[in-house]
Amino acid sequence: MIAAAGTLNQRVQFLRRSAGTYGAISDVQWGRLEYERAVTVSIVGVTLQGRGGRLTVRSCDLTRGLKVGDRCELDGDVFTITIRKASAVNADDVHLEIESAPTADLYAREIDRRGEVVSLRRRKPNSVPPTYDAQIDVRAIVTGYAPSELIGGITQGDSRVIMLAKDVVAGGFPLPFKVSSTDVVFVNGVQRTLKAIDDNTHRVAGELLAYDCTVRG
């Protein structure tokens, strides 16, 4: 790794997607994040609070070849390159507009900020009183559905639960889910039946970040 040069004093690792996942494409470079600002990253109704700005790096074959959609890791956070400003071959610096990439950490921070903890459980069939084969706590964002969203089997009174995928994995909940069956979610102490689950909407670069669930009851 080359030594830091003047104001270029922040370590930057550039990443590119290959075979479905992001991996490093270079040694660590030095850069400088300027004009930092708050940004929002929206994915199908989930708004994530992130940050962005202009990243300046020394011009070289690597940085001149960066593309929109490539990523960089800076100060422990991962960013997406949204704009790459064209520069002459002999220019000293390359300027990149970057914003927070949708990652598991960004989802976790957003759910910690405005979500709650729900209890995901699997009932033993026909048990009275109910007993459970599995029970874990999961961070989630719980909302209702707008009237325009009452389609495809969603009815008034149903709720949308965005569950953090890494909590489901860490808790060891047995997958796949058993929808409309023995899998239930307790929200504020009230049992709701898991009616549908979407494990594709919040899958980014091959990584499942959150389950988008419909619960009823």
Task: Give descriptors for this structure.
217 residues, mainly beta, Thrombin, subunit H, 2 domains, six-stranded antiparallel beta barrel, 3 helices, 15 strands, elongated
What does this structure look like?
The structure is a single chain. With 217 residues, the protein is mostly beta strands. It folds into two domains: 10-102, Thrombin, subunit H (Beta Barrel); 107-216, Thrombin, subunit H (Beta Barrel). Helices cover 10% and strands 52% of the residues. The chain contains three helices and 15 strands. The strands form three sheets. A six-stranded antiparallel β-barrel has the order 1-3-4-7-6-5. The radius of gyration is 22 Å and the shape is elongated.
Structure summary:
This protein has 217 residues and is mainly β. The protein has helices spanning 61-64, 104-114, 165-171; strands at residues 10-18, 21-24, 29-43, 46-58, 71-74, 77-84, 93-100, 116-123, 132-144, 159-164, 183-187, 190-198, 203-204, 207-208, 210-216. The N and C termini lie far apart (57 Å).
Low-confidence segments: none
Q: Could you report the average pLDDT, rounded to the nearest whole number?
A: 91
How would a crystallographer describe the biggest sheet? Answer: 6 strands, antiparallel, barrel
Helix and strand run:
EEEEHEEEHEEEHEEEEE
Give the CA-CA distance, first to last residue. 57 Å
Our count of domains comes out at 2
Note the beta-strand portion: over 45%
Number of separate helices: 3
CATH architectural group of the largest domain = Beta Barrel
Kindly report the spatial arrangement of strands forming the biggest sheet: 1-3-4-7-6-5
User: What is the name of the CATH class of the largest domain?
Assistant: Mainly Beta
Structural class per helix/strand content? Answer: mainly beta
Number of strands: 15
Q: Indicate the overall shape.
A: elongated
Radius of gyration over C-alpha positions, nearest whole angstrom: 22 Å
CATH topology of the largest domain: Thrombin, subunit H
Helix content range of the residues, please? 10-25%
